[in-house]
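Q&A log
Question type: sequence-to-structure
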Amino acid sequence: MDLTKHKLGARELQAVAGAVGLKNLVDEGSIAWKESTAQFLHAPEAVIEALCQSPKLLRMPIVRNGSKATVGVQPEIWAGWV
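Response status: OK
Response body:
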């Protein structure tokens, strides 16, 4: 799904964060993150909301398989899901 056109909802991001950890969802090396005030947020709910509003802050790709998820390119894990 193109996240610049279709944003993920808070529940979806919470599910992914539950699988991979909230910190792993954020692309801390991106210019978008470095320019965002979201980097100063501490409450998980506030970070999730910031990620919902600005998908450029997310590490990509986000891949889900039921309750399992990965962020970033991880073909070795995906192969185990097949």
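Response note: The radius of gyration is 12 Å.
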